[in-house]
Structure formats: structure tokens, C-alpha cells
Amino acid sequence: MNKSLQGKRILLADDHAVVRLGFRLLLEGAGATVVGEAENGESAVRLYAETNPDVVVMDVSMPGIGGLAALERLMVWEAKARVLMLSAHNDNIVPVRALRLGARGYLCKRAAPEEFLRAVGQVAADQRYIDPELAQAVALSQLSGTANPVETLTEKELAVFLKLAGGRSVNEVAEDFCLSPSTVGTHLYHIKQKLNAQNAAELTLVAVRNGLLEA
To answer: What is the DSSP code (8-state) at residue 105?
Structure first.
């Protein structure tokens, strides 16, 4: 049994109920308690305030504002929050951003169950955790600075880019982030300039090439 999880209070944020159930069973089997479940970023921030968990396990890709923007809001609200971010995508851009925003750990969802428990345990102990598969790429990315144009995007631009590349319209993204369509349009203009993309299809292509979306 993973002693580091004994008695720890965990908040789960993932939009797939079956994934949350799997995490809950693993965590409860290791002696932890799941104090709340959120299916989007807004709920995760609200439930954190209500439950004050030891660790938040949060997926990057969720409806609404998504995991990165939720992480940003959470860290503004509570700088000591311990957050383990999860992603189904094996890129190095989002992990670097998540760690810069204040996440304590980052794990690819393809990890084995024991690796998931190890990651949550380390974050619960206020230690950093980076998925072994991503650690080298993340380290190299941080050393090399902004060789990749996607890394030049601001936090808000990256969040908007991920939504638009995933097929959301400007109006839908405006609704997700409680912004005006003209503000999202301005972000889109800057994103296209920075990524040298002409249209939505090219944005999607950039996202796929960088491992931010499934092909």
C-alpha cells in the first residue's frame, strides 16, 4: 500500500465519469479519500474552495475554461494548492506551462496505475513530479527557451488556441472564457501572427504537430 496517500483528501477534476471512477477506486484502495469530483474547470475551482483538499488531480482538456485556465485561477486564489495535472497528449509545451503556472506535478494518462499513485503521493508530500516519459523533453524545452513558436503564446492565447484548434468557434470560446467575441478575435489575430497560420485548419495542424491534439 502507498503509505504516502493514507488519509489524504483528493479532489478529482475530469470530464469523463468513468475516468473519475477509476481514479477514485485506485485512490481509495491506497487509503485516500475523494472529497469531490468536478467535470469542468469552473467546478474544480469552486469545489476546491468548498473542500480544501490536500491534492487536486486535474485533466488539462475539459469543457469550459479547461484545466490550464482553472489551474491559473486556483493558484491565484490559493498559492499553496497542490495540483497534479493530467493529459492524454504526450507533448512538452503544456507540461512546461502547467509547471510555470504552479502545478506540482504532471502525468500522462497513459501511465500505469502504480505510477499514478506515486505521482499523487509525491504531490501530496509537496514534492515535484514529472512523468518519466516527459521529463527529458520538458527539461530540454526549458533549456532551449522559445525555439517552438507555440511557446511564444501568452497563457490566455494558449488556452484560446487549444479551444480553437479543437474545433470551437470564436463565439463558443468567448462564452467559455466569459470574454467578448471581439476580445477572442484579437487573441486569434495574435495567435495567427505568432504561429504563421492563416485559418482554423492550419491552427489545428500546428496543434497536431505539437502533440496537443490527436491526429
So the answer is: E
